[in-house]
């Protein structure tokens, strides 16, 4: 078979009220008038559009005022519930805090926090104030935080005591940073707050409980997420308020969200899934969502579903593979009968995992595909359409995906090519922060270049093939090799470093580094451990290399570029291809 897997199609009865199957004829250009979905939004008085208004205030001002928006379960078993009315009050207060600090439309305000309710409140307060929210992954070390804060010129950082301490030494380098707001949740941290910092609860206590949302337009910037490429530092993909229409629509179409659902998205807001689908899609649909602060453990996760009666669950392939590894008997110990729909994103979902879901927890996982840059789901398996295990499904209405060769001509059905999308979908990113050149390079001959390779089968289903670049996908996190190489060469013993993704049965890929040492250093296991630890402290355990090999010199092109492709081929025992541009070694 050229296009499919050897797994049988999972047939579905057409049951969803949000059935989009009729729109999915691949012979039709994906004509879709987004206006009907824009009309379903509330809009601001005067015609503006603001994500916070659509997600929170429209419900707080209507019959859903007392409906629970967020069930929060803390890592120590704490529980807090917030209604849409509570969320409005708290986010209004936070917007007032920012206003009192002089924050204006377009300013960048970043969060660097665990999954605490205060992070969700802060992000929507930022949006109400007309500023651009930049949530950072709390596992990041100081280097990734500095790169992102510096590039964006963020004026305010909302963080928590332990994370604040982790980055203390980079703070003096952040010239645009004016205020740090510390959330010491329930006094968890015994150390006093630095006198130069602001105490979140104190500021919130002083802030008025009403705020008139800044009249942003649909084209104004709202959220930015940094994403890694092959070269250079990560780029800040900036989204506009109008992205909300596609997040709202795909919440219905691709995640099958219904009024009475209890929805759980396991992604962290430091990554795009955690904002587009861990904040915007559920709340614009007025749906209650669970936020679980705790990390991964199979028993904890099943317990969350049982305890909170989760109906729709959106997670990631690495987590599913870890659940599979934990064993089929574990889910049997829990009552998972509340579940109705399960979905996955971020990495290729192997067909075994799709089918395992059906057998072990009663629901096949619906894989869908999108990226930081696309802002929302572009291609999906739907509640009411057949699943071909291993496929990412079909484009959502209004989205035209293509598979093209290097001249941007379509390749025949069933053949591999570059995955491209017709620009202009509502949640499309609008720029890379201060990097128009890089942004423009993503568009050619009327297409947006995704950087992935894929194929389409005779039924219009898309199948992920790989990345067209050197970006590593480890457990759903994109890692730029350049970032890791830069951190490694800061170690005093390291002369050069080359970084690749090494295939892994659980995390899809793990970061592997090849390092050559400076003269006078010996290749010892202790030095290897030391370099590994050095990278972990600088970057984060999620990004740092899991393996380091010492090699005498790195293969390079004549112009001095490290040939990661060759390092990878050698690692995998594959043919090394054209090495004519290699320097003599
Ligand atoms: O390579 C694809 C992979 O993740 C990339 C996007 O990563 P990011 O911008 O971090 O956004 C992740 C959350 C949407 C894609 O270019 N990817 C995403 N979904 C899938 C996938 N690979 C295979 N199958 C998927 N369903």
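-> sequence recovered:
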């Amino acid at each position: 078979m050229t296009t499919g897997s050897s797994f049988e199609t999972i047939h579905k009865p057409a049951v969803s009220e949000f059935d989009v199957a009729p729109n999915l004829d691949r012979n039709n250009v994906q004509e879709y008038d987004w206006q009907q979905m824009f009309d379903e939004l509330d809009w601001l008085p005067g015609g503006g559009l603001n994500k916070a208004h659509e997600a929170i205030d429209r419900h707080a001002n209507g019959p859903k005022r007392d409906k629970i928006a967020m069930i929060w379960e803390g890592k120590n078993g704490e529980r807090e519930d917030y209604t849409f009315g509570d969320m409005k009050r708290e986010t209004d207060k936070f917007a007032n805090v920012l206003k009192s600090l002089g924050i204006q439309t377009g300013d960048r305000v970043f969060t660097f926090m665990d999954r605490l309710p205060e992070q969700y409140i802060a992000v929507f307060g930022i949006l109400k104030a007309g500023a651009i929210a930049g949530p950072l992954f709390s596992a990041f070390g100081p280097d990734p935080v500095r790169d992102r804060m510096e590039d964006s010129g963020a004026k305010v950082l909302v963080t928590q005591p332990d994370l604040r301490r982790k980055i203390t030494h980079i703070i003096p380098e952040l010239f645009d940073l004016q205020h740090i707001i510390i959330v010491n949740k329930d006094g968890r941290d015994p150390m006093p707050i630095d006198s130069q910092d602001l105490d979140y609860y104190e500021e919130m206590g002083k802030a008025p409980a009403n705020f008139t949302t800044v009249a942003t337009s649909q084209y104004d910037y709202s959220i930015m997420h940094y994403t890694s490429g092959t070269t250079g530092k990560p780029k800040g993909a900036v989204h506009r308020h109008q992205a909300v229409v596609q997040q709202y629509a795909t919440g219905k179409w691709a995640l099958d969200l219904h009024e009475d659902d209890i929805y759980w998205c396991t992604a962290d807001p430091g990554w795009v899934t955690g904002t587009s689908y861990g904040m915007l899609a559920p709340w614009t649909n007025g749906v209650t969502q669970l936020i679980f602060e705790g990390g991964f453990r199979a028993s904890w996760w099943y317990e969350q579903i049982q305890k909170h009666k989760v109906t729709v669950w959106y997670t990631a392939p690495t987590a599913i593979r870890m659940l599979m590894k934990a064993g089929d008997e574990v889910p049997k110990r829990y009552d998972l009968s509340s579940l109705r729909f399960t979905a996955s994103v971020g990495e290729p979902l192997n067909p075994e995992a799709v089918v395992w879901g059906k057998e072990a927890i009663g629901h096949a996982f619906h894989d869908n595909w999108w990226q930081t840059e696309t802002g929302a789901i572009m291609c999906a398996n739907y509640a009411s359409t057949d699943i071909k295990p291993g496929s990412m499904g079909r484009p959502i209405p209004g989205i035209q995906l293509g598979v093209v060769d290097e001249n941007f001509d379509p390749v025949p059905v069933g053949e591999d090519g570059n995955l491209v999308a017709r620009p202009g979908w509502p949640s499309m990113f609008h720029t890379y922060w201060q990097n128009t050149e890089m942004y423009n390079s993503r568009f050619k001959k009327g297409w947006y270049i995704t950087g992935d390779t894929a194929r389409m089968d005779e039924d219009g289903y898309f199948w992920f093939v790989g990345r067209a670049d050197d970006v590593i996908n480890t457990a759903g996190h994109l890692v730029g090799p350049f970032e890791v190489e830069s951190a490694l060469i800061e170690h005093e013993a390291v002369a050069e470093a080359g970084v690749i993704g090494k295939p892994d049965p659980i995390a899809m890929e793990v970061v592997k580094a090849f390092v050559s040492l400076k003269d006078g250093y010996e290749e010892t296991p202790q030095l290897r451990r030391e370099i590994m630890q050095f990278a972990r402290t600088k970057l984060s355990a999620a990004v740092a290399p899991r393996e380091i090999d010492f090699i005498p010199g790195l293969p390079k092109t004549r112009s001095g570029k490290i040939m990661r492709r060759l390092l990878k081929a050698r690692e995998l025992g594959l043919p090394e291809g054209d090495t004519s541009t290699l320097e003599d070694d």
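The longest helix spans residues 84-100.
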